[in-house]
Target: Thiamine-phosphate synthase
Amino acid sequence: MPSLGRLHLITDTRPGYDPLTVVRAALGVAGPELVVQVRVSDDATDRETYDLARRVRELCTPAGATCLVNDRLHVALAVGAAGGHVGADDLPVAAARRVLGPDAVLGATAREPVTATRAVAAGASYLGVGPCHATTTKDGLPPPIGPAGVRAVAGAVPVPVVAIGGVTAATVPALRAAGAYGVAVVGALSTATDPARATAELLRALGC
Ligand SMILES: Cc1ncc(COP(=O)(O)OP(=O)(O)O)c(N)n1
Ligand SMILES: Cc1nc(C(=O)O)sc1CCOP(=O)(O)O
Ligand SMILES: [Mg+2]
Model:
């Protein structure tokens, strides 16, 4: 399994946002340190998801970056992505591992040590842990767990913990100090006036 990048960019496909422009800008700065997770709205068709994921994968490969697909593992396989990410409403982690195979990168969402330990036992190779802070990007999430919640999960598992939810360059140091291996962001890059500069700031905060 390739080593995992520390900066995870999750695509923002809300109306008015341009995910490929942000991906190109971030790749130019972060290269192999970038993981791009293709995430679309629930009402996107598989064909739309495939078309976006194929283009992201084609951008990631020459840059040495990792392309993952959220939820839709058949799309991950179809575009030759490195793997996928699943949460509570998606395929169970063990089933996802069977779909993707033993060498794929497989992320799972876990908010507390018990679910984190179970996810790793079932085959997760990294964990997405959050929401760390308040976010306007996704509705219906539980209250933020903060760096203390990240610390609890990171101390319970041997795999990389990727902190998510309201992450900015300013909040990265406390998350890293709590044991986060890396961070996943949507808005910190998709709403930035200069996504390349915002990428550089996140990488600096991560110590990359
Ligand atoms: C890195 C990372 N962590 C958590 C999530 C959330 O996944 P999930 O709980 O399945 O929710 P959706 O993203 O599918 O709405 C993630 N995508 N990435
Ligand atoms: C997709 C997602 N999942 C989360 C979780 O906690 O499981 S938070 C989140 C959205 C993260 O967006 P932003 O970086 O703009 O806060
Ligand atoms: Mg999901």
Notes: The chain has a mean pLDDT of 97. The pocket of LCLJCK34 (ligand 1) is lined by residues 8, 37, 39, 70-71, 85-88, 90, 107, 109, 128, 162, 164, 184 (CB under 6 Å).
